[in-house]
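Quick bug: PH domain-containing protein output formatted oddly.
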Amino acid sequence: MTPLYTARSPVARAAAWAWVAFTVLNLLDLGLGLTGKPARDATGAVMAALLLLGCGIAYVLGLRPAIVADEAGVTLRNPLRDVRAPWRSVRRVEGRDAVVVTFAQADGAERSVRAWVLQTSPRSAAKAEARTQREAAKLPKGAATALKGRTPTMFAIDQLNEIAERERPRSDEDATTGTVAWSPVAVASLAVPFVLLLVVVAVL
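Here's what came back:
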């Protein structure tokens, strides 16, 4: 499916990639001694395991989270779980401080899930609205009313509702219920370096 709308956190992704680069440089330093003697001992192994665990955290918190909408439905990639809701299963897309998707489950009940990305604190929302109002003051009369409350979160909600309204009647996906599943890659990215760390510490 071709994504029609994708939302990620540029700041979180930049921080995650910065940590990955930091890890690569430090692993090279530990193994090759770029800035001194190589640390190919137990201490170096512990440091390497901690760096890799940090990469796992950077992945699940910075690189993985996203909201992806396509012709068939919407996917919320949260740190450890994936939510997939076909448009025919979506009941509501709403929220103020975060995007919340409510969808039908296989048992007939409704379930609401918050997206990890685009969460906005009340303070940040107030700042964003004040900034929008300052910008709207430069536009023709009435723009301030139209732009009121247009935080990134609200913009994403509007976009998802527009896509849902447009795509729901002709969705070719048979499923009419949403699913929530653990991401094996996300879990492994944390579990593997954590187990490695425990093993290294145990043999010290």
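Actually, after a second look the formatting is fine. The chain has six helices and eight strands. Closing.
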